[in-house]
Amino acid sequence: MATFAIMDPPRSEAKEAVALCRRAGIRTVMITGDHRETAEAIARELNILQPGYHSLTGDRLEQMSEEELREKVKCVAVFARVSPEHKLRIVEALKYNGHVVAMTGDGVNDAPALKRADIGAAMGISGTEVAKEASDMVLQDDNFATIVRAVAEGRTIYNNIRSSVHYLLSCNTGEIVAIFTALLLGLGSPLNPIQILWLNLVTDGPPALALGLEPPQKGIMDRPPRKPKEGLFSEGVGIKILWQGILIGFLSLAAYWLALSWGRTMEEAHTMAFIAMSMSQLVHSFNVRSLKQSLFTIGFGTNRSLLYAFMVSSAALFIVIFTPFLRGVFDTVILRPSDWALVLGLSVIPLVLVEISKLARK
Length: 362
Fold this sequence. Notes:
By secondary structure, the protein is mostly helical. It has 16 helices and 6 strands. It is about 60% helix and about 5% strand. The chain has a 3-stranded parallel sheet. The longest helix has about 40 residues. It is elongated and about 90 Å long. It starts with 13 loop residues before the first helix and ends with a helix. The mean pLDDT is about 90.
């Protein structure tokens, strides 16, 4: 008599995806209708069933109260022989313990659990229309590894949004500090209205957009998950915006004050403040690519969009300075070589100081 065995092996990339989840602080739980022995074997193969965790069957879950289940789910990695009603209870128990729950499913009976989860992910190939309607996302390839890639992409998008906000707010803070401080000192505004408009549209705009195209940072999946209530200004971002904005503002103010102290004309003083503000903001765009990693670790050329934005905005600034017609519109003049050396030297200071602060934090 011949003996036959039928096996539906896990996808080859599933084990790697589970390991990546563990590195990212994401706990993977298997919920299945299979027998306990079968579920445990697959969970061990995928390294889901780790030491300290165990399995639980649906009939045992049925006998538990909500309080017992809430405590039990803390150390269960495999739920076997469960019904759709059990899935809903498991999701609610995990959420009660403060977890952000992502649930996958494909059947009509999975819809309540998919709807109750923080993120419901329906199968696009094998999933029913009811499951898809109840979910927040649909996997077109029915692949768990796709969810993990989506997590990495989501983390990158969040970081890029925060970098853009960080950049824009610190630049705007610098402009406010420069103008307000100069007026308090009785020096008059270092920037005229059209120069301020130029800074907000041409100088700040392209780098801010380019920061949204920043590629994923190294080790982005080696960090713990962000707390759900954590805002854009967490991890000291608000403080960084403030002190970096003050720095940019005072650099522009320093160029303006020195120009007046050296007996330069008001047009020369305005031009020096305008260039110092523009170039320091453009240089600062490279600082905000990462809160913690040094620019020299990330690499200058890893975000080509930002390099192009820097070159375009810098070229536009020089056109304003060297084109006679535009000089009249923007109230600028051609500077002396020593003045150019001063304003360009001042504009590099944000990069130096931010790099020193990152090094000090390490």
